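TL;DR need structure tokens for one chain.
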Amino acid sequence: MKILKVLSFLFLLLFMLQCTNTKTPESTPANINTTFIPFPQKLESSGHFSNINNIKLSDQGVAVEQFLPWLTTWPIPVEKTKAGEKANLTLKNIPTLKAGAYTLAIRENDFEIQHKDPEGLRNALSTVHQLLEFNESKLPILEIADERAFPYRGMHLDVARHMFPVSDIKRYIDYLAFYKLNYFHWHLTDDQGWRIEIKKYPKLQEIAAYRKETLVGHYNDQPHQFDGKKYGGYYTQEEIKDVVAYAHARGIEVIPEIDVPGHSAAILAAYPEFGCIEKTYETGTKWGVFFDVLCPKEETFQFLSDIFDEVIALFPSQYVHIGGDECPKDQWKESAFCKKLKKENNLKDEHELQSYFIKRVEKIINDKGRKIIGWDEILEGGLAPNATITSWRGIEGGIDAAQLHHPAIMAPSSHCYFDYYQSEDPDEPLAIGNLIPYEKVYHWKPIPEELPDSLHQFIIGGQGCIWTEYMKDFKKVEYMGLVRMATLAEVLWGKNSSDIDAFTNALFNHIVYWKKEKANIANHLLDIQTSVEMEPGKGVYVTLKTPLNDANKYSKKPTTKDFTSFETDKIWLEEDGNYQFYAALQGQKGRTKDIKFQGHKGNLAKVTLKTKPSERFTGNGPQSVFNGIKGFEDRYGGSEWLGFSGDDFDATLTFDTPQNIQSLSFKFFKGEGQWIYLPAKIEVYNISDKAKRQLLVETNKIESEGKISNITLPFSAATVSKLNIVVKNFGKIPEGRQGGGNEAFLFVDEIEIK
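>> reply
TL;DR here they are.
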């Protein structure tokens, strides 16, 4: 028994060392469990290397030609056999396998791939590629049987806001291929630029492809500042053909997006005759939603038909993405032509007019032999007959599409928008806002729980989205996207466990690999993660962890001079000031986490909310607002901000013992470009034992000089056991503003009770 215990300990120790060892031993493969992203469904490994040092393959009746340009970039020689030469890679077509599935058997001197279709072959080759990269060009002896959960596994890239050279686009495609992602959604047009050569309409290249200047800093910074420099460019048709061929050789379908009828300021700057009103249009110089839209005239549809003729000739994809998102209706409402068109076609409002527009565009594309995808706004007013939905504003669009028996691609901004911050470190590069760490992506479930089993088939997959307002170069794209792209690949492949620790160990190895390959990949695996909790009647404590469980943790209290290591994951905040934490492992040190604590009477309360915050902005729960820790001044989201879409903040605080209070201080965020408005009113009530409500103070004078509003409301001292704080939401955003007609967001941070 003692021998068994010793052997078990040695095995565990060896496994831990292999999980973090980035140099592969000569005699045995790297730990297979920390090699693969995504991880195969079934894997058996011998723990030894094969003798294969090159790949020789024959046609064998299998269409491998597609992938040869990719295979020749691998770290060992790959070539087709010559006459009389024996192959060491056998490819077998097995019709009984599922679509996209494969088996891989690596033996001592040869190996075999079984597949049903080109997708399955490509998936097997991606697995072989990872094995070679993580084992110093050697192949371990193993057997794998693998299949994917979703047929659509994609990544999006916006090149309208900022454009990247073809070499960078190819590198982006390499990342997709490495992680078995199979769709590249290329966002080629928007208000800020047109990025595809259309020979019939040269002014799209001459005018629409350029803007006179670009916004500096964040959209929420006021007043807006600009760099005064002309910016732009476009991809020639030859460049696009090159990119499409490059992707095809890696098993990736490139879906072009031509965004209409909204997001069309650049188009109208070049061809104003396709607008509904007479005005001077210009390509957008800042971010957000513009009110310039295409007019649903016959001339417009002919213009679009001509464009799609050239687009479809360049992209063999079965899909064309036509956008359809964030289409303001103001100019349509003003237009005499649109009023007449609505009447002639029995369209009751502008939403149905948008549906009319989308259906006309769908017919154009269907007649050319392709299908459309649109963002979930195209559901409004009636869905086009053959459309696929990209559900970005949440899961509702995907649910609605599935209920209509239309395919849906899930890309909710709550989990799949990789232009959001990925850590709460104050040194993170500028991003649009909100927080999506890789852990949140990992725990995402693409199929909504609300959807009955019979409709699951209509959720065909998901994709991550990278919008580039704040990404001027490709290094920033890598930093923001690569870790979360790998995580999303794990999710969409169909992770066969919820063991995020095992995935994190693999991710650590992948980060080391990409750094060696000079990729600007983010590494937050040694960052201390904190969760702040309140215990009624006692106070505030912090729980701490790191993604890498083996890391050593260190802390320093406000009155302590030096950092000390600690084993507990729970630290009480018993004094005001700055607490600091960091983690280290194998000589690598994570970033220092600062928590500035200022205690107040709200720390002692039990907090309940009448209405839950938006799923995207839940912070650390209701206590986030009363825990003595303030959130960022320059961005919303994160663990300290609570965000409410259309709803009020209505909190009830219950104290174990009565508290004497005489003032409350509030902190709100203002970012109208992101639909975030200051509240309409604040009301504070004392609730007696008999549930009677006594108004202590109220105000509707809530202002800010910038993005933050700090308000203190003093009142006559009162003794309370139960306190009700109501912060009224702004309500509907007025037409003519960003997000007009939608519910405003209310963002609340610390409410100090003194």
